[in-house]
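Design request, tokens follow.
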């Protein structure tokens, strides 16, 4: 593709994302590229990176465009503004190289577009007059919650959340040790380093794609953020236990827990979404997991009633705003609305109440979100414990040496005996996660 064709494709992709505001942008991008198989891998990466750059900087680009008098932030203006403010293009280069017109390029700038973009030429993306939410790149309605969470660390936390995330892998101990997996990947040109906290993790240092390697195809590694690995570690799923992964999705944490169990005992992956659960089948097979079953939860589920009080571990990896994953899903930053948060908080409460019934006395309920918002995290735990005096938290620090090994550093920050763990990109290099482990007291 020519540079101008890449710009045109980024504009087209952004328009597709704008057209479906309730669908995740990565799903839209997958469809976009699937319908255009002629776009090769490096062009695809360049187009997606530019579109993602725009989405990541959307609040600031909107601010600049409004200041320059644009009546609307169209995909053409957004990409033009990104090229000028974030990618260092000048106006002349923009007109000749990005909007030249012709068959595979964006149409020339209209006079009004040119007038707006000319005002941005030579400017930097950040400006001292930006209001605080724009300067920090956090929507205004979420800012008080972020401040409550991070306090004086807010600028560092916000800055870390707008960086692209690293690519983390979890070594599948059913197939290989961490050293063996690292060697297998290196033999195929994929360099990695051990993750700092998770004893199962490898962080890819280069840019070689992993999913095409034999190591991946043969199930030696799975793609999984170190934060997710830490959640699965803290579930402390041991060989022989009965484990329920209540919000299993496509089984990311089911796989990790099954490996920790050495395939011994029983693990049930539940979810209300049949397509998501179906996505787990191939991954479980590739990972060599044979102690897992899947269960689709339906309203008034008798399965759950029959299994009340039977599980040693129940993990609730709850649906949430995903405010901890903005590095990977930058569209969530601009798409999540206050009413979404209210609905998620309500759903989390219901899920917790239902999942708690499955835990045997002496067993554990593990609650996790990839959100950093207090009402989805400790707020949810406080409400749950007020209603359920038979559950009490175990400090993650106390569990850590057992689940991760004496040598693994604890991803602290909340205090040594804090009743829950909060992971954050600026402190741990992981996505933002909240994890609480609650033990059900015997009657
Ligand atoms: C954060 S995702 C889970 C990700 C998954 N555990 C993993 O590690 O890949 C939350 C999941 O909760 C599921 N979910 C939503 N409402 C639910 C409910 N009422 N009961 C159980 N699962 C639910 C969603 O379908 C979604 O797959």
């Amino acid at each position: 593709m020519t540079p101008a064709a890449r710009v045109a494709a980024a504009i087209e992709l952004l328009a597709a994302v704008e057209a479906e505001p309730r669908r995740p942008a990565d799903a839209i991008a997958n469809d976009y590229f699937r319908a255009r198989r002629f776009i090769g891998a490096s062009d695809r990466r360049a187009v997606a990176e530019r579109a993602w750059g725009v989405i990541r900087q959307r609040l600031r680009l909107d601010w600049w465009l409004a200041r320059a008098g644009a009546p609307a932030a169209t995909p053409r203006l957004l990409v033009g503004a990104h090229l000028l403010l974030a990618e260092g293009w000048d106006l002349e280069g923009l007109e000749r190289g990005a909007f030249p017109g012709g068959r595979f390029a964006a149409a020339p700038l209209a006079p009004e577009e040119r007038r707006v973009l000319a005002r941005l030429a030579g400017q930097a993306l950040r400006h001292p007059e930006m209001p605080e939410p724009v300067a920090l790149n956090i929507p205004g309605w979420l800012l008080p919650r972020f401040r409550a969470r991070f306090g004086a660390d807010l600028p560092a936390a916000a800055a870390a959340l707008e960086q692209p995330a690293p690519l983390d892998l979890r070594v599948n101990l059913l197939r290989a040790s961490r050293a063996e997996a690292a060697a297998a990947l290196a033999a195929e040109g994929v360099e990695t380093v051990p993750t700092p906290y998770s004893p199962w993790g490898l962080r890819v240092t280069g840019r070689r794609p992993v999913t095409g390697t034999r190591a991946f195809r043969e199930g030696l590694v799975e793609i999984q953020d170190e934060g997710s690995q830490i959640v699965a570690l803290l579930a402390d799923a041991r060989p022989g236990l009965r484990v329920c992964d209540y919000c299993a999705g496509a089984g990311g944490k089911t796989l990790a827990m099954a490996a920790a169990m050495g395939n011994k005992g029983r693990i049930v992956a539940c979810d209300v979404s049949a397509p998501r659960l179906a996505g787990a089948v191939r991954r479980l097979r590739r990972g060599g997991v044979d102690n897992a079953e899947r269960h689709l939860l339906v309203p008034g589920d008798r399965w759950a009633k029959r299994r009340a009080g039977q599980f040693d571990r129940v993990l609730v990896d709850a649906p949430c705003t995903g405010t901890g994953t903005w590095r990977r899903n930058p569209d969530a930053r601009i798409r999540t609305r206050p009413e979404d948060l209210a609905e998620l908080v309500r759903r989390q409460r219901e899920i917790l109440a239902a999942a708690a019934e499955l835990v045997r006395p002496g067993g554990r309920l593990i609650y996790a979100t990839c959100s950093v918002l207090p009402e989805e995290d400790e707020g949810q735990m406080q409400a749950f414990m007020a209603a359920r005096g038979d559950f009490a938290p175990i400090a993650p620090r106390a569990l850590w040496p057992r689940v991760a090994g004496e040598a693994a550093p604890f991803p602290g920050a909340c205090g040594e005996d804090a009743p829950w763990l909060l992971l954050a990109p600026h402190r741990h290099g992981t996505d933002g996660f909240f994890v609480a482990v609650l033990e059900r007291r015997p009657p």
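Comment from the thread starter after seeing the answer: thanks! The chain has 21 helices and twelve strands.
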